[in-house]
TrEMBL record:
Residues 1-20 are annotated as: Disordered. Signal peptide: none annotated. This is Putative O-linked GlcNAc transferase. Pfam families: TPR_11, TPR_12, TPR_19. InterPro entries: TPR-like_helical_dom_sf, TPR_rpt, Ycf3/AcsC/BcsC/TPR_MFPF. It comes from the Bacteria. The lineage of its organism: Bacteria, Pseudomonadati, Bdellovibrionota, Bdellovibrionia, Bdellovibrionales. Keywords: Repeat, TPR repeat, Transferase. The keyword Transferase applies. GO terms for molecular function: transferase activity. The keyword DNA damage does not apply. TPR repeats lie at residues 162-195, 196-229, 230-263. Residues 1-17 have a biased composition (Polar residues).
Amino acid sequence: MLENQIVQKSSEISGDQSGPEFVQESTKIYFDPQQAIADFDAELPEVKEERITDPRVANFIRHAQVLMKHREYPLAMNLLREASNKDSKNPATLNMLANCLDKMSRNSEALIVRKTLAQVDYGFESLHGYATSLYKSGRDQEALDKYFEALAVLTDESDTLFETYKNMGNIFVRQGDFDGAEEYYNKAYTMNPQSDVLLVNFGTLEVQRGDYDKSLYCFRKAVEINPENDKAWVGLAMVHSQFGDMELAWANIETAIDINPQNRTAVHLAANWGLRDGKLQKAIEALQGYLASVEEDEDMSLVLINLLCSAGQVEQAMLEIERVLLWNPDHKEVRNLKKKITASQKVA
């Protein structure tokens, strides 16, 4: 098991990644409609679902599969609705409908579909899908119950079993049951010891336990497997900070932000450390990059405003205040901050 490896090497001092995305193919421009139709038809897969008795449903599904392959999810949804109108309890239709809704980040609707699928096609895969939707919705205990139910009816090995064990481990961590988390992480590890995502989870578990040597080993292994795993770099930064090596911690956190400017944890750490270590400009740039890449985050905007004020960049702070108030004119804390800045400018 992983723990045995960690113990041996500890003196050297660890919806929605649930599956591969369809590959986006290059766009081809057609001038001949007949050729376009012929090429589209050539891509249509064979539908092997034996329970599809209506040929119209099979045809809708075949075309929806091609559209989903090319990420045309709204168009695929139209066909899947038509298929559902013909046969509302067909498992193939319901499964594709749920997958399409997941791709469109319509998680609450996907949850309803997966609940129905689990009722009409009771088995491991359907129960796993329903449990994962509950998991993504933050309904941890319900998700855990459904994962256990899925495992109870498992008869053969499944490609989704790794994700089942991993997610169960995550739930146990959030519930504070670290021994339960370790048990299910180890089960997942036996199935895929090269998962950088799982190694990050192991590292986070050891941070919760206060064993920073083990967590450092896990995060390092995750980075070795996948140098682009920004969460692993954040984990390394937190552990090196705990050890007092701030130079290395800063290098790790900057790497995480370079890889993923939308990593909120990394940016928030940079803001806190920037204020503490007198590296305000680094923290400001990280926050500005983050806020430019997300639709809105009022809490992080407030952090940026305070950093700008601390750096003496009052005009920039006022611009950020106005931007927040455009989103939320009733934000009391930002409105009060605006009044204080305006008053101080008048006095000056």
